[in-house]
Design a protein that fits this description.
It is an enzyme of class 3 (hydrolase). This protein is α+β, with helices and mostly antiparallel strands. Helices cover about 20% and strands about 30% of the residues.
Length: about 150
Protein backbone atom coordinates (compact mmCIF):
# COMPACT_ATOMS: atom_id res chain seq x y z
CA UNK A 1 0.00 0.00 0.00
CA UNK A 2 1.33 3.43 -0.88
CA UNK A 3 1.38 6.31 1.57
CA UNK A 4 -1.20 9.07 1.16
CA UNK A 5 0.09 11.90 -1.00
CA UNK A 6 -0.01 14.31 1.93
CA UNK A 7 2.69 12.35 3.76
CA UNK A 8 5.43 13.09 1.23
CA UNK A 9 4.55 16.21 -0.71
CA UNK A 10 5.59 19.22 1.31
CA UNK A 11 6.62 22.14 -0.95
CA UNK A 12 10.25 22.17 0.26
CA UNK A 13 10.74 18.58 -1.02
CA UNK A 14 10.76 19.73 -4.65
CA UNK A 15 13.73 20.86 -6.73
CA UNK A 16 11.48 22.53 -9.32
CA UNK A 17 8.72 25.06 -8.75
CA UNK A 18 6.64 27.10 -11.17
CA UNK A 19 4.56 30.15 -10.18
CA UNK A 20 0.99 30.72 -11.35
CA UNK A 21 -1.42 33.49 -10.42
CA UNK A 22 -5.11 32.56 -10.31
CA UNK A 23 -7.02 34.35 -13.07
CA UNK A 24 -10.65 35.50 -12.96
CA UNK A 25 -11.70 32.96 -15.60
CA UNK A 26 -10.52 30.09 -13.34
CA UNK A 27 -12.81 30.78 -10.39
CA UNK A 28 -16.45 30.00 -9.70
CA UNK A 29 -19.02 32.55 -8.44
CA UNK A 30 -17.51 32.23 -4.93
CA UNK A 31 -14.06 33.18 -6.30
CA UNK A 32 -12.75 29.67 -5.53
CA UNK A 33 -10.67 27.94 -8.21
CA UNK A 34 -12.83 25.42 -10.07
CA UNK A 35 -11.39 21.94 -9.42
CA UNK A 36 -10.60 21.09 -13.05
CA UNK A 37 -8.13 23.96 -13.31
CA UNK A 38 -5.71 22.27 -10.93
CA UNK A 39 -4.98 19.68 -13.63
CA UNK A 40 -4.24 22.55 -16.02
CA UNK A 41 -1.86 24.04 -13.46
CA UNK A 42 -0.09 20.67 -13.15
CA UNK A 43 0.15 20.39 -16.93
CA UNK A 44 1.72 23.85 -17.24
CA UNK A 45 4.21 23.05 -14.47
CA UNK A 46 5.24 19.74 -16.09
CA UNK A 47 5.81 21.53 -19.40
CA UNK A 48 8.00 24.06 -17.58
CA UNK A 49 9.82 21.23 -15.77
CA UNK A 50 10.87 19.81 -19.14
CA UNK A 51 11.73 23.27 -20.46
CA UNK A 52 14.02 23.63 -17.43
CA UNK A 53 15.71 20.36 -18.49
CA UNK A 54 16.19 21.75 -22.00
CA UNK A 55 13.55 19.49 -23.56
CA UNK A 56 10.37 20.13 -25.52
CA UNK A 57 8.01 17.65 -23.90
CA UNK A 58 5.38 18.12 -26.61
CA UNK A 59 7.66 17.28 -29.55
CA UNK A 60 7.98 13.49 -30.12
CA UNK A 61 10.89 13.98 -32.53
CA UNK A 62 13.09 15.73 -29.97
CA UNK A 63 12.02 13.86 -26.85
CA UNK A 64 12.06 10.40 -28.42
CA UNK A 65 8.45 9.38 -27.96
CA UNK A 66 4.93 10.55 -27.28
CA UNK A 67 3.85 10.77 -23.63
CA UNK A 68 0.21 10.40 -22.59
CA UNK A 69 -1.43 10.67 -19.17
CA UNK A 70 -2.33 7.22 -17.86
CA UNK A 71 -3.40 8.21 -14.35
CA UNK A 72 -4.30 11.44 -12.59
CA UNK A 73 -4.87 11.64 -8.84
CA UNK A 74 -5.57 14.84 -6.91
CA UNK A 75 -6.25 15.49 -3.24
CA UNK A 76 -7.73 18.83 -2.23
CA UNK A 77 -6.67 20.21 1.15
CA UNK A 78 -7.66 23.89 0.95
CA UNK A 79 -9.06 26.16 -1.77
CA UNK A 80 -7.21 28.67 -3.91
CA UNK A 81 -8.90 31.99 -4.65
CA UNK A 82 -8.91 34.66 -7.33
CA UNK A 83 -5.57 36.48 -7.61
CA UNK A 84 -3.69 34.06 -5.32
CA UNK A 85 -0.04 33.56 -6.16
CA UNK A 86 0.45 29.81 -6.30
CA UNK A 87 3.61 27.74 -6.40
CA UNK A 88 3.52 24.38 -8.16
CA UNK A 89 6.15 21.84 -7.14
CA UNK A 90 7.10 19.08 -9.57
CA UNK A 91 9.16 15.99 -8.78
CA UNK A 92 10.03 12.67 -10.39
CA UNK A 93 11.38 10.22 -7.81
CA UNK A 94 11.61 7.17 -10.06
CA UNK A 95 11.22 6.19 -13.69
CA UNK A 96 9.51 2.98 -14.79
CA UNK A 97 10.09 1.08 -18.01
CA UNK A 98 7.57 3.13 -19.99
CA UNK A 99 6.09 5.23 -17.18
CA UNK A 100 7.07 8.59 -15.81
CA UNK A 101 5.27 9.33 -12.50
CA UNK A 102 5.17 12.96 -11.39
CA UNK A 103 4.46 13.98 -7.80
CA UNK A 104 3.05 17.49 -7.63
CA UNK A 105 1.91 20.02 -5.08
CA UNK A 106 0.22 23.40 -5.24
CA UNK A 107 0.89 25.76 -2.37
CA UNK A 108 0.18 29.34 -1.36
CA UNK A 109 2.58 31.06 1.04
CA UNK A 110 3.82 27.69 2.30
CA UNK A 111 0.35 26.16 2.79
CA UNK A 112 -0.29 23.00 0.76
CA UNK A 113 -3.57 23.35 -1.14
CA UNK A 114 -3.51 20.41 -3.54
CA UNK A 115 -1.33 17.31 -3.89
CA UNK A 116 -1.34 15.00 -6.84
CA UNK A 117 0.26 12.40 -8.99
CA UNK A 118 0.23 12.27 -12.78
CA UNK A 119 1.59 9.15 -14.43
CA UNK A 120 2.65 9.58 -18.03
CA UNK A 121 3.36 6.62 -20.31
CA UNK A 122 5.76 6.89 -23.21
CA UNK A 123 4.53 5.44 -26.49
CA UNK A 124 5.85 4.84 -29.95
CA UNK A 125 4.43 7.80 -31.96
CA UNK A 126 3.55 5.55 -34.93
CA UNK A 127 1.80 2.72 -33.05
CA UNK A 128 0.83 4.47 -29.81
CA UNK A 129 1.89 1.35 -27.96
CA UNK A 130 3.94 1.62 -24.74
CA UNK A 131 7.65 2.13 -25.34
CA UNK A 132 10.61 2.50 -22.96
CA UNK A 133 11.28 5.98 -21.61
CA UNK A 134 14.07 7.35 -23.85
CA UNK A 135 17.56 7.27 -22.36
CA UNK A 136 17.98 11.03 -22.89
CA UNK A 137 14.90 11.66 -20.75
CA UNK A 138 16.09 9.20 -18.08
CA UNK A 139 19.50 10.85 -17.90
CA UNK A 140 18.19 14.43 -17.82
CA UNK A 141 15.68 13.70 -15.05
CA UNK A 142 18.09 11.50 -13.09
CA UNK A 143 20.75 14.20 -13.16
CA UNK A 144 18.32 16.95 -12.16
CA UNK A 145 16.62 14.93 -9.40
CA UNK A 146 19.93 13.36 -8.33
CA UNK A 147 18.90 9.70 -8.44
Amino acid sequence: MTAPLTEFTMPDEFRFHHPIRVRWSEVDPYQVVFNGHYLNYFDVAITEYFRNLGMRFTDPATIGGAFYVRKATLEYHAPAFFDDELRIGVRVSRIGNSSLPFTLTISRAGQTLVTGELVYVNTDPATRQPAPVPETVRQAIGQFEEF
